[in-house]
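Continuing the series of single-chain predictions for the mutant panel. This is the parent chain; the variants come on the following pages.
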Amino acid sequence: MIDAKIRVLIVEDHLVFAETMSLALRAQSDMEVAGLATDAGQAMNYLKNHFVDVVLLDMRLDKEEGLDALSKLREVDPEVAILILTAVRDPRSAAFAVAHGAAGFLTKDMPLGEVMRGIRDASKGRAVMEPSMASEVLGILSGRRQWIGDDLTKREVEVLRLLDLGNSAQEIAIELKISLNTARNHIARIISKLNCHSMLEAVSIARREGILE
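Parent structure:
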């Protein structure tokens, strides 16, 4: 009996990179491209109607962050393995992604062979991590670096900086080219993560803890 191929959903808004990844997947005898989505909405709809083994998720989508999309996709299909693939080397974001259900975290400058190996491992339920960041990420996850604000994403720090400059949620949405609702969600998560009660208090804590340096 021939084993079923690993079905991979690519969630990537840079079409050239998405096509390159599609070609690489199709060249593997044990994989197939289940589908291609350019944002979380398309990916969610696909997961609702199709079986997928692994989601290859870009960290920075045009309309939202991959970490936001991660939570939405986990709600639709808690069992699917979601691999974050990004151009940004950020151990804190990697740790946040893993802590919130990602199967692992890979970078776009890795050799394609290593990415393919990561997909195979993720499909078997194994944790996957970019080797050069593994030690630091594991340190964060194990609690050795649990500082205030350590779980803030890069986008959330960007939002904090704009709050520090006196921008409103609407002004932040315009500056970052995101929806007002997304900007408000970022602010709500910042307030929750910093364990405070207002935007002003969040900025005060961020200054005190050196998050905005």
